[in-house]
Amino acid sequence: MTSPKDEMVLDGNAVAGTLAEIYGDDMTTVLAECTSCGNVDHIGGLIAYVHAPGIVLRCTACATIMIRIVQTPKRTLVDVRGKRIPPPP
Amino acid sequence: MADRFVTRGFVGRREPAGSAQAARIPPGQHLVKDFPVLSAGPTPRTPLASWSFKIEGLVTEPVSWGWDEFQKLPAQDFVKDISCVTKWTKLDTHWRGVSVDILLEHVELNRRAAFVTAFSDGGYTTNIPLPDLIDGQAFVAYDYEGKPLAPQHGGPARLVVPHLYFWKSAKWVRGLRLMERDEPGFWESLGYNNHGDPWKEERYTGD
Ligand SMILES: [Zn+2]
User: Fold this and answer.
1) What CATH number did the domain enclosing B163 receive?
2) How many Å lie between the alpha carbon of B61 and the closest alpha carbon of chain A?
3) Are B39 and A70 a contacting pair at CB < 8 A?
4) Strand order of the sheet with strand A65-71?
């Protein structure tokens, strides 16, 4: 059974284009390590919430935030929280 | 013929109503009939037995209500237009809840208290100046359109501050922290406006 919430959950591949714009490279195969539970995933495999004022990528194991992205008309703001993820250039 | 006449008359009467409606839509917003769900994380499902609502921070004595106690507080029905920063506006939404004025009657505020951080299950926070939460402007709501507020819309209870963009109306709210200084919340710390007045299009900081 799919709840309205579940329909809104995508994975990191859904924001591959946005991440490529920010980093100038494909990021989906880069590894991210959760600061809370230590789980390691490819960024493309993270849980993605995109139906919000910004994009939030979370740990698949414990939902701790790995990356937050807000795109305003003038700039893009990125908050990298997961380990191993390079800072945006 | 009769039908056409009725239809024309109906359209004619509705024109003033239509422009009155347009006057209620803030700049850059469009009208929706549905209620879009926006979430930055998994929907928390806190059992009512372990739910509480706290007022803490710059108060002489913090206060906390359990769910049953909260239901006994004087509640009111209210009808408000709401605007989301993702550009939708919904008119005449019906809610029931407790005004923040009533909640604040239960604490003695430190005179330095000037800002509030609303905090929620799941770790969400949002910051709001204290003057925007008082004088009947803000509520902790638990019913929506005559039914218990659904989890995807912030149930069991959410903050409703209808005169600010709806990200300020924290879903799954569990308390208010009184502060001396403004402290950016979840979205405010990443580019969104500390105030968020839709009529002034206060969407972002520094844009
Ligand atoms: Zn984790």
Assistant:
1) 3.90.420.10
2) 32
3) no
4) A9-11, A47-49, A55-58, A65-71, A76-80
CB nearest to A4's CB, from B37, B204, B207: B37
The answer to whether the CB of B197 falls within 8 A of the CB of B190 is: no
Is pLDDT at B70 greater than 90 in this prediction?
Answer: yes
Helix/strand/coil for B75: coil
B18-32 pLDDT, tens per residue? 788 999 999 999 999
| Residue B111 φ/ψ, nearest 5 degrees | -65, -15
Omega before B198 within 30 of 0, i.e. cis: no
Tell me which residue has tokens 């359990």. Answer: B66
- Domain limits at B116? 24-33+51-200
Taking CB atoms and an 8 Å cutoff, what residues of chain B touch A79? 189-190
Q: Which ipTM value was assigned to this complex?
A: 0.91
* Tokens standing for residue B112: 């330095």
